[in-house]
Design a protein that fits this description.
- The radius of gyration is 19 Å and the shape is globular.
- The chain has 314 residues and is an alpha/beta fold.
- It contains ten helices and eleven strands.
- The chain has one domain: Aldolase class I (TIM Barrel).
- The longest helix has 15 residues.
């Protein structure tokens, strides 16, 4: 089973609808059964929600021939990368390999893969197929949450991700979901550790999905998320622990110099970060609702709103 995100299908001309923020990556989901039991995910074996959703995004189904034809006839210039989200199953991994083989010589575009890979041989195999970046999800920012929500061993996952990042420099990524019950200090510790080990990191805001174990949990408060965005942006730019004051595990204050102040005023910390050319429109939010990750440069009103939301005074 091969699915495209709704925005990808629209951008490629497979759906006659409008999208106000075109994707800069083509998002592709492969597999119809996942062996994971992630408590927040619509694709979990323990989820009762519809299986054409991932987070809050709808993913219509297409054949590989339809997808290739859409790429070959694509007249736009927004899409710069393919990102394949694979279910955690052998069948899905085989289909991913077949799909990459079918596409790679016909479409000159870098390919990312997000999958549950746990052996170095599997990492090597997918790189040999032509993937240029592999994402291995960590999601939860501390051991207790990870092992409760994901059901796997936290230390083993961290060791594997960081070892692979050392082995394949610049080619391993992960993401952290904010709002699962962690503290800001948990995120600081994990983020700095991953950064030190050359892992590319994306931030997501927890999004409750009906039919999952965590459907009744609220999204993180926007002030909390904005502060995490600023903290991680500053970590990426070389700022260290003394820039952040934590109170009971949560960011109480951030030392902002002239450079960071200017970046805040330009909205840079609040834009999506992660793999190159990945903008994930409306992955965490609905149009017209609170925007957690901006998929484009902020306009003047959005810049002022983000400064208000972060609530750090002067």
């Amino acid at each position: 089973m091969i699915r495209l995100s709704l925005g990808t299908a629209i951008e490629l001309g497979l759906l006659n609808k409008k999208s106000d923020i075109p994707p800069t990556t083509a998002y592709i989901m492969i597999g119809n059964k996942c062996s994971n039991k992630c408590a927040f995910c619509s694709q979990s074996t323990e989820s009762s929600t519809r299986k054409d959703k991932l987070s809050r995004v709808i993913w219509p189904e297409y054949s590989k021939e339809e997808i290739l034809s859409a790429f070959e006839n694509y007249k736009g210039n927004n899409i710069k990368r393919m990102c394949i989200q694979s279910m955690a199953s052998e069948d899905a991994h085989e289909t991913v390999a077949e799909f990459i083989e079918y596409m790679k010589d016909k479409i000159n575009m870098p390919i990312s893969l997000s999958a549950k890979l746990e052996k170095k041989e599997d990492i090597e195999k997918f790189f040999s197929y032509g993937v240029d970046k592999i994402g291995i999800a960590i999601d939860a920012a501390n051991k207790a949450l990870y092992e409760t929500i994901k059901g796997n061993n936290y230390e083993e996952k961290l060791e594997f991700v960081t070892n692979m990042a050392k082995e394949y420099e610049g080619k391993i990524s992960t993401h952290i979901i904010v709002g699962l019950g962690e503290t800001h200090k948990d995120i600081y510790d994990l983020y700095t550790y991953l950064k030190l080990n050359n892992v590319t990191i994306s931030l997501f805001a927890f999004t409750p999905v009906k039919g999952t174990k965590m459907e009744k949990i609220n999204q993180p408060h926007i002030e909390s998320y904005r502060r995490v965005q600023l903290m991680t942006y500053m970590i990426n730019n070389g700022y260290e622990k003394e820039s952040f004051t934590f109170k009971n595990g949560y960011i109480d204050d951030i030392k902002i110099d002239d450079k960071i102040k200017k970046d805040i005023e330009n909205g840079y910390p609040f834009e999506i970060r992660g793999c190159k050319n990945c903008n994930r429109p409306y992955y965490n939010e609905r149009p017209g609702s609170t925007i957690y990750n901006y998929s484009r440069a902020l306009n003047e009103d959005e810049k002022l709103l983000a400064i208000k939301e972060i609530n750090l005074g002067g």
